[in-house]
Amino acid sequence: MLVEPQIAELTARSVMIDAPAYAETIDAMEPVTEIDETVDRIRGWLSKNLEKKVNLTEVASCMQVSERTLIRHFKKKLGITPRAYLHNMRIEFAKRMLRETNLRIGKVAERIGYSDI
């Protein structure tokens, strides 16, 4: 027969073992916020416009938000600025193109918006 201290210990262990799975479930249940939607729209727009010379004013205008709001939402959600995100996307795309195609570096640079290299 289990005594109260043993029951308490078993219950505590069970809670500790299940806590990470429970936390993941809670995170997955978090509602999508306006910030999430805005950042997702911005990310989509940036990925479709890798080859263009993108400026913050244009992106903010397309997303119907101010430049300050755009930067703030992006930093809050992803921890980096939209410019840094775009740069990272371009670098990853360039690496993939260099691996998977026979294009020269100059051509790859043009395709990702760095035509003045």
Automatic annotation (TrEMBL):
The keyword NAD does not apply. GO terms for molecular function: DNA-binding transcription factor activity; sequence-specific DNA binding. SMART domains: HTH_ARAC (SM00342). The keyword DNA-binding applies. Keywords: DNA-binding, Transcription, Transcription regulation. Pfam families: HTH_18. Residues 40-117 form the HTH araC/xylS-type domain. PROSITE patterns: HTH_ARAC_FAMILY_2. This is HTH araC/xylS-type domain-containing protein.
